[in-house]
Amino acid sequence: QVQLVESGGGLVQAGGSLRLSCAAPGSSFRxxxxxxxxxxxxxxRELVAIITAGGITNVANSVKGRFTISRDNARNTINLQMxxxxxxxxxxxxxxxxxxxxxxxxxxxxxxxx
Length: 114
Known about the structure:
Blueprint: E1 5-7, E2 10-13, E3 18-23, E4 34-39, E5 46-51, E6 57-59, E7 67-72, E8 77-82, E9 91-97, E10 103-104, E11 108-113
Parallel strand pairs: 2-11
Antiparallel strand pairs: 1-3, 3-8, 4-5, 4-9, 5-6, 7-8, 9-10, 9-11
């Protein structure tokens, strides 16, 4: 079973930036759609951004203009660049790789202080 590993989370002040990465050691993302989701305490998990195997991207309205999802095929990672962070972006961020993997990572905590 494919294992996904997220990294790059942390504590940042409002207005700051973080870059999250999702890796799949021993596997390749090239043929997968991959998405970033997030879940804040007491709330449902929500889709933040997605990138298809062909490189088409889409982001949630709440992060449009601030977050960018991208592929790094050389490093076999999917990255989420998060700029102009707000306290409401505080959540655990999860990576999800679509078919045929259908796998979730364990998440990385992002905390934005006001």
